[in-house]
Amino acid sequence: MGDEFHSVKTLSLKKCSGMKSLSIKNYNLKDIELQNCATLKSVCINSPNLELFLYRGRDLRPCEIEFGICKKLESVILIGVKINNMMFSDCNKTFPLIKLLTLSCFDERCINISSNSLDILALCKFKACVDINVDAPNLTWFGYNGSTLPSLNMKFPLLDEVRIELHANRYKKRGATWYSRLIKILESLKHAKKLVFYTNSEKNIIIPNEFRDTFVPPFVEMDTIAVRTFYKTRNFVDLFDGMLWICPRVKNLVLRSNYWVSLELVHEELTGDSSCSLCTAHPFRCWRHSVKRFDLNDEKEESKKKTMSYLMENLKMVERDALEFVALE
């Protein structure tokens, strides 16, 4: 497609069969959307004023995408593609205005992303372990979706929100390798204000007790941790316990299965004996020492009693049984 269509600002092709390759060179196009064009094998784009490019295809037939001069691109969404792993390695030069990047790449083993302008990064539907290297100092939102855990090396300061969605086989055994990789991922995201988990099994995100003496909690404090499970439960104790280990000074825990449950914690620095068998191996003290008040909101009385019992029993372990408690109605 050449520059003969001077007035065209948007190009949208959906379910167009027969094309094997597509080359677009146009100075006026602002938006390009290519969706479910099953026979496409390669796409080459040269559009200096292009602001949005979306390609959505099938993983079984990945399409190769090549960008020429597209320095005004702000949003790039690539789903079911095969790309050069260096395509986004120097966005300050190739895509200096990019704000949003969504990648669902086929058979990639390494993805390198470097951008000073990138605000939102989403990595979706990864089925194999991939090395992800990100240098994005102004990133505010990061999301990962997959059935396995990547190896993350991320450089950015304060994120507003991190979303991690895991859909591993519920019956597959998780061992030290899985949990070690999970800890490393979370350590890379330790400056986030909010962490959101979506999972089909609590085994994906709860560090078992047998590994807790070996690993160090990845977070010291965080505003909010939320967990959305895709199965029903009437007992949230294990999830509360797992999240309080991951982040001992978390301020708000929000859990959702078939209904919402929330726990708000108020912390303070407490002095006194620092010996505690539950946290002596860690560089900071566990939540049992710092929490001075907690508010539990749970509409199911049976579930509320189980969580209350868990909280009070843990406080008694460190000889703290006079905690003020307020249950939100």
* Rounded average pLDDT: 86
Helix count from the secondary structure assignment = 6
Largest sheet: 17 strands, mixed
| Beta strands, count | 20
| CA-atom Rg in angstroms | 24 Å
Molecular shape: elongated
Please provide the ordered H/E string of secondary-structure elements: EEEEEEEHEEEEEEEHEHEHEEHEHE
The structure class reads: alpha/beta
Low-confidence stretches: none
Content of β-strand:
35-45%
What's the structural blueprint in terms of helices and strands?
Blueprint: E1 10-14, E2 21-25, E3 31-35, E4 42-46, E5 52-56, E6 63-67, E7 75-82, H1 91-94, E8 100-105, E9 110-114, E10 120-126, E11 131-135, E12 141-146, E13 151-155, E14 161-166, H2 176-188, E15 194-199, H3 209-212, E16 221-229, H4 237-246, E17 249-256, E18 260-267, H5 287-290, E19 291-298, H6 301-317, E20 324-327
Parallel strand pairs: 1-3, 2-4, 3-5, 4-6, 5-7, 6-7, 7-8, 8-10, 9-11, 10-12, 11-13, 12-14, 14-15, 15-16, 16-17, 19-20
Antiparallel strand pairs: 17-18, 18-19
In short:
With 329 residues, this protein is α/β, with parallel strands linked by helices. The protein is built from six helices and 20 strands.
Description:
Helix content is 16%, strand content 37%. The termini are far apart. The mean pLDDT is 86. The protein has helices spanning 91-94, 176-188, 209-212, 237-246, 287-290, 301-317, and strands at residues 10-14, 21-25, 31-35, 42-46, 52-56, 63-67, 75-82, 100-105, 110-114, 120-126, 131-135, 141-146, 151-155, 161-166, 194-199, 221-229, 249-256, 260-267, 291-298, 324-327. The chain is built from six helices and 20 strands. With 329 residues, the chain is an alpha/beta fold. Helix 2 links the parallel strand 14 (161-166) and strand 15. It has a 17-stranded mixed β-sheet that branches. It has two domains: 1-128; 158-329, no CATH class.
